Amino acid sequence: MNSYLPLSMGDVCYSIWQHRNTIRNSECSHYVIDFSIGIDYNEGMNDIAHAHYTLGKAAFDDGQVDQAMTHFEAVLELDPDYIDAHHALALCYFSQHQLQEAKNATQTALKLDPTYQPALSFLQAIVPQDTTKKTENTEQDQKPIPTEQTEQAKPPIEDKELDIDKEMERGTVYLNNKQYLQAEAAFKRVLKIEPESVEAHYQLAQAYVGMSALDNAKSQTDTVLQLDPHYRLAHELRNVIKFATYKDKQKSRYKKLIRILPLLIVIGVVIFVVIQQGVFSGILPGKEQPKISIDATLEERTNKNGYIDAGENVRLRLTLTNSGGNAKNIKLRIRPKSISGVQYQTPDQTITLGKNEFRIIRILFTADDQARTKKVPLNIEVLDKTSIPLATTDYILNIKSKTGR
């Protein structure tokens, strides 16, 4: 036997009418599409009433039914003929299982406009239809039966047929009063006598929806459509059940996630700490780190004496070689950043070195005419994207004045 899953009747209500979204044109050809009803506004609509209606609609969509009802009631105090507010109020009542109040609000809307289709369809869906009444006899049925056929004529209605009518009426009353277990029992008694009663199967499906027994409701609805594929209300009810089942599955997944979320957080924190501490660094194969070396030489075009002479331009040639893993977004840093009497600039662009690749970088150094003789130690580093050194080397830059001093 299928377990009864919790079902929000607001979800059911929304599903019933979601596919009924319509656009109704007013005489002035203004229209708006709403969450379950077609809305048209007259040019003289009260702005405050419209604001309350909009707030009520937003509250209903967020599941705040009590707040939505407060706004819809405020609309009706300002404009008792606001038909959309009557219908919206009916949806609120229905979502709170107040069937009679929902019917009353819907009937009030229909008094304002008997052709208002959202209210007509809604009333037809929430009020079970009693189709068990027997049609009146046709003229042919009323013709006297010939004497020779009297013996073959069907006997009068049996007691069990009278019992079917009584049980259907009893089940319908129970259903209207939300006494779903009693309604279920009544309709099952009908089906025991008349297994192919379309109406009994349909009403039983409605009772199961009321009890949130969606699997049973679907089974009964499928039976109805097997017996009568064109039974419109059964098609609508099946859509309701599909939507409600989907919503229930979502809620179930959400509840499961909420239950395991603390555990997932704890596991995540533990993994983070383990990785940071390097507990498994010797066990798990890690990413191969870059192994970069730096070779620095001075390129001279004129004197070629290993010095940068006053007034001379030379280039410091840096050869970067990587024998390890890929190195992405690396950059150079040379210190000191400035040298008295000499101008140079470290490249700003980042470099990528693949495994077993090398790159040559030339940095221009220019000595002033007044540069003095001295030796300047340079520290050359290759940094990763977080400015952590991957390689470093030292180089002595020899500067020579024009006088040799």
What does this structure look like?
The longest helix has 46 residues, at 232-277. Strand 10 and strand 11 form a beta hairpin. It is elongated, with a radius of gyration of 43 Å. The chain has helices at 9-18, 47-61, 65-78, 83-95, 99-112, 117-126, 139-142, 159-176, 180-193, 198-210, 214-227, 232-277, and strands at 32-33, 38-39, 292-299, 308-309, 313-322, 327-335, 342-344, 351-353, 357-367, 374-383, 389-400. The protein has 405 residues and is of the alpha+beta class. Among the domains are: 9-126, Tetratricopeptide repeat domain (Serine Threonine Protein Phosphatase 5, Tetratricopeptide repeat); 292-400, Immunoglobulin-like, CATH 2.60.40.10.
CATH homologous superfamily designation of the domain at 9-126? Tetratricopeptide repeat domain
Taking pLDDT < 50 over at least 5 consecutive residues as the criterion, the unreliable ranges are 1-44, 129-145, 147-158
What percent of residues are in strands? 15-25%
Distance from first to last alpha carbon: 104 Å
Largest sheet: 5 strands, mixed
The CATH architecture of the domain at 9-126 can be given as Alpha Horseshoe
Give the mean pLDDT: 78
Question: Could you state the oligomeric state of the chains shown?
Answer: single chain
Kindly report the CATH topology of the domain at 9-126: Serine Threonine Protein Phosphatase 5, Tetratricopeptide repeat
Number of helical regions: 12
How much helix, percentage-wise, in residues? Answer: 40-55%
Q: Give a count of the beta strands, DSSP E runs of length 2 or more.
A: 11
- From the alpha carbons, calculate the radius of gyration and give it in angstroms: 43 Å
CATH class of the domain at 9-126: Mainly Alpha
Query: SSE string, helix = H, strand = E?
Result: HEEHHHHHHHHHHHEEEEEEEEE
Characterize the overall form.
elongated
Strand order of the largest sheet: 4-11-10-6-8
Helix and strand content put the structural class at alpha+beta
